[in-house]
Amino acid sequence: MHQPPTLNKSVYDDFPLVEAGIILDIARHDFRPLDLYKLDYPAKPASSSSRSYPTFTSLLSPLTVYFNILSTLAAATGKPNIIRTVADGAFCYISHLSDLSQRYEWGAVLQYHMDFHLDRRREMANGSYAGWKSADGQLINTHLVHRLLPITRYSNTSTSRNRSTKSLPRSAQTCFNFNKGSCTSFPCPAGRIHRR
After folding, report:
1. CA 93 to CA 71: how far, in whole Å?
2. What pLDDT was estimated at residue 170?
3. pTM
4. Does the CA dihedral 189-190-192-195 come out positive or negative?
């Protein structure tokens, strides 16, 4: 998909609520993440702002439409490796974004998404679609590390004391290897939180 495929009527027919110019912007990788509101059907907001997407769920619908169009355009190339890379990347990224939304403040996750999407746009314009499959550690450090959601401690109903960290779900536990510098992957392969 380095060169946008020639679009035939069927691609437009697949997305009758999306303007042809928007589909072309997606095909050329000129579609900006701030324009996702244009894909938010049926409740299309008048303009984009962080208030347009107060939760992960509110972003999921237009983001799914975006990936659906991108996958359809990939299919038009007839190249199975591109189709597979786009589809895998879409699933991985949506799962990654969902995970982030459960660990970090939503406003920070939304900013991470906007910057992440801009970076993928540049890569796709150069013919690479694999970036959707991997977290961006630099953007995580920039936007998310200091914006963790508060950890809810589980209390024992028979006593009012808090249980130890070990009783928390793994996704709510701190990765001590990260603090020692021996866990450098993002996200943490053990499923723990990277925080200092």
Report:
1. 14
2. 74
3. 0.72
4. negative
